[in-house]
Amino acid sequence: MRKAKKRRERRVKNPSPPKKIYPPGPRLSAPMLSRRFNITPRTLDRWILDPRLDFPKPFYILQRRYWDEPQIEEFEERRRAARAADHMRTVRLAKPAQAALQAARRDG
């Protein structure tokens, strides 16, 4: 019978870091987002830091910031929905206020 030889594991002195996996699909850079929303790069920084906005977090490639386009489109949809809700709230508040003003003018 033959004895099974034990294989020595090769140890790498400096293992390479794991490869970063970036989101697939179209990417938008910071200048592209600034043009898309008509804002300055500093405003973009503020949006990233503001938790109330829930703006998507960027990922970095060679020290440059990129965003996944579907996440940005989802943010735009949430923003539109919030604006529509605010507008409806304003309209609902405005009608009773207008009626009260008209009544006050009549009673005058």
Query: What best-fitting shape do the alpha-carbon axes yield?
Result: elongated
SSE pattern: EHHEEH
Q: Return the structural class.
A: mainly alpha
Mean pLDDT: 81
Task: Give the terminus-to-terminus CA distance.
Answer: 114 Å
What is the spatial order of strands in the main beta sheet?
1-3-2
Kindly provide the radius of gyration, computed on alpha-carbon positions and rounded to a whole number of angstroms: 28 Å
Give helix % range.
40-55%
The DSSP helix count reads 3
Number of domains: 1
| Count of DSSP strands | 3
Low-pLDDT residue spans: none
- Describe the largest sheet: 3 strands, antiparallel
Q: How would you describe this structure in keywords?
A:
108 residues; 52% helix; elongated; mainly alpha; 3-stranded antiparallel β-sheet
Folded structure, characterized:
The chain has 108 residues and is mainly alpha-helical. It is 52% helix and 10% strand. The chain has one domain (27-107). It contains three helices and three strands, in the order E-H-H-E-E-H. The protein starts with 26 loop residues before the first strand and ends with a helix. The model has no long low-confidence stretch (mean pLDDT 81).
